[in-house]
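Hello again,

I reread your note about wanting to compare the complex against the isolated chains. To keep things tidy I'm splitting this into two emails, and this first one only covers the full assembly. Below are the input lines as submitted, including protein chains and any nucleic acid or small-molecule components. They are followed by the predicted structure of everything together. The single-chain runs will come separately.
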Amino acid sequence: MEVSSAEAALSVSASSIRITDVTQDGDVLTFAIASQKLNSSAGVCVFRIYEDFDWLQQSLFSQENLPGLQGIIFPPLPSKALPSQSNTQTKALKQLGFLALGQDWQSYCKALEFYLQQVAAHPTLCKCKALDSFLINSESPGKQRGRKGIFNRLSQAVEEMRKESHKDVDNFFQNERNKNTNLAALSKVATEKLLDVVMTEQKLALACGHFATSLHLCVNQDDAAAVAFSKVCLKLSDVIEAVNRNFEKVASNDLSTLGLGLDLESRYQEAEKVWECVLMIACKLIELETVKKGTEKAKASKREVMEAFQKAVEKEFNLISSVAKQEIERFHSSRVNVLKNFLIGWCELQLNTAKEFAELYSQHLEACRNMYSE
Amino acid sequence: MAASSERSPPPFPDSEEPELLEDSDEGADAFTGTSISEMDSPSPDSTRPPKDIFNEPPEDIFSDPLSNINSEPQKKVDTKIPSPSSDEAVDLFSEPLDDDSEVMSSPEVQNPMPDLLNEPVEAPKSDVLGEPPVNNSSSSVKKAVSAELFGDDEDEEDLFKETPKVVTKKPQPSGPPVDVFTEVKSDVKVKPQVKDDPTDLFTEEALTAPAQKPPASSSSSSRTNGVHSEEQDLFSEATVELSLDSPLNDRKKKDAVKPSLSAPAASVASSSSKAPSKTLEELEEEESEDKFDLNISVTNPEKVGDGMNAYMAYKVSTQTSLTMFRSKTFTVRRRFSDFLGLYEKLSEKHSQNGYIVPPPPEKSILGMTKVKVGKEDPSSAEFVERRRAALERYLQRVVSHPSLLQDPDVREFLEKEELPRAVSTQALSGAGFLKMLNKATDAVSKMTIKMNEQDVWFDEKIQDVENEEQHMRKLHVMVESLVNHRKELSGNTAVFAKSVAMLGSSEDNTALSRALSQLAEVEDRIEQLHQEQASNDFFTFSELLADYIRLLGAVKGCFDQRMKAWQRWQDAENMLQKKREAEAKLLWANKPDKLQQAKDEIAEWEAKVTQYEREFERISATVRKEVIRFDKEKARDFKRQIVKYLESLLNSQQQLIKYWEAFLPEAKAIA
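Full-complex prediction:
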């Protein structure tokens, strides 16, 4: 594994990272990732598959020589998309939620892009060599996998741990954990509901489309009355078509902004959960040591060793705690910021759409009224 | 007028000679016979030779004017009024016309007789007044004359004999227009007493008119009876008799008529009293299309009674300036079965004539049971509202139909405090079942009747209506799904709003929390918008389409009526053929005793054939007119709905803009 030799920062700017293209080859999605060098105007473009993202995440998890690694909230990587298997909409929706919507994996790309940006913007994680090589090396980074860090196993144990409702040593973390549980559940529900809304909007758009098309069938040019009626039908068809586009647009607005934001939010909350578990384990470890110390008090011979060990553990715990506290602050501010941006973007888009269609409708209305007087 | 009287004679000598001989022969025959039955019996002799009489007149006199009526009623009325004045009839009419002019100046003085006389006298006058451009102009007179020239080129007498009949028959359009004019335009001429009970008028005249004609020959009196019976009968009987009448008879009648002219107003009155003729409606439609002033609203659905006997009563309020109603505004309470009863009555009377009678909303046992059982169920409230709106549209359609508006039942329905309970509307009661059976047999006969359609217009139109119905059904399904999706969307939005609110309440960051709860509110409002839009979609399109699917059914019913008329005609034709064959056999077998009877039968069937053929022509014309009207109405209706729909769309879009604009600063305020 790469050794973090120096404090070499990432050589590309975090905000310039984009996923510009995605190609599907059977089961494999290949993403084109473009980024811009910090010190020059030169752009870099690499091709990555999902496994590479996975590799990056694992590398981030298993960084060595990094103090307080356990206190870091890792940006969540979206789960793997399976284009061929999950061709049925419902399956894909279940697996990916919002990310399965949108044409040509657009929203999935957006989510990955956002993940990369988050990693690159993270004060600690951006120093990881793996990220650099992921973004810059044209060759696919090391295929070595199987180094599933403790985190994976930990995440599996998450629920189990929660059930124990272990009281944290620190009240701060205890509160945070409670809130997180709450928020995670709620944001998940909200995301699902928004997904429902978007789905319905899409269905409506589809229904409008059908309606508009069948109105075209009513056209008949036989006589004056029929022509008049046909005109009415065509007009109505246009109107319905406009409604259709309105819904499509609203749905895609929802999807691209609030949908993604809420999705990210809920995944972040999940990530925080995992992170808490890590913290908890660290705490448990210390408790365990304390207990051990108590039981072995008698054995004076080992006392010194134990005390030294305990000190070391405590020191580590303190470090983790401090990192964690910083991290959680950073996490909250970034989370709020992200949500805010999404909300504003969403609101503006909706507003624009509404205005645009209000304009369009009034045009149609005018046309209809004129048709009246003909 | 003078021109016409000069012109009319010349053509007669040309064409009359052969027929004249025959006619006079028969006329003599006819006249030796004293009774009417005998009078009819010799007629068969004449029927075959003057076959052209039969064929031509129906076309020219009747079918042609009819089509004229349909297309250009005003002209028609005019042609008919001057027509009597074409010849000796001038005498007849110089008087009434003079009367008219006098009436114009001083009606009270002129009419010692009360309302009865007053109105009929005024009839021609108002015509004169109302349509000055074409009125009495030589061209229209010429038209009238020429129509008659072609129609009855037998001899003068025939013409004369006919003119009085034309007088009695044709002015009837001219009478009703009075109503139109007085009602629609001027309140000066309004005579509500007369108009309120036209039935009385009817009967009175039925009594007076024959009474004034006793000096006329038996045939003429029988004719007047025919005149009073029914217009279809009138058309057929009168003309058949007419062509068979002898000149002698005629001359005598002329003499008879002359004395009776002392009260010409009465005869005119008798004709004008036969108000509900087609020309009237036609005129009315032309006139009232733009000035239609009758607002009907169905409001306040109210549950009456309890349990399974409960029913919904609706308030039917009418607002009108039409003087055919007693007052400007009135309100009655009606229950659903009353509406169905109205439809039953109307369709019984009018659908056989080829009118499109707007169908009422269907009976819904399920929906009504829900209303009866369920207390405050939103779905039953929706059902009631839906039905209320449907009933309102139904009534509006009925009154916007000019001839249905004239129907006394409609007036009664709108005005009368208490209606007899409609009985035959029980959903699946005995009557309903019978009706279903009838419909089934109708359907069968429809399949078996293979009508070879000569009229391309009808051929295409029938096809069009079929297609249209299919399209409408399809559209209806689409709109239904649209509405359902809309409802789903509104539901989902509500749930989303709720979950956003929850999220906001458990959010730590105050600004974000605030923004989220604001967002929840916005989403709540949007949900309301969606709901409104859903009901808008529903009422503007779904119900409209449902209405038109029903209406198209009615249109198809019209086509069926026409086909039935055709079938009757063809059957009669076949029968006539058989009778003729039988007669030929008899001739060949030389059985003179039976020959007479066979001839009688042939005459009878020939009469029927002409009658049925005319009926068919008439119904065709009516159906055609009705369908054209229907198409126009349809386009107008849909246009109106689209405008309405767009307005609602625009409105909700503007609301949306407002909501988002209010929310944007909130989102930006998140620190």
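For quick reference: DSSP finds 28 helices and three strands in chain B.

B.
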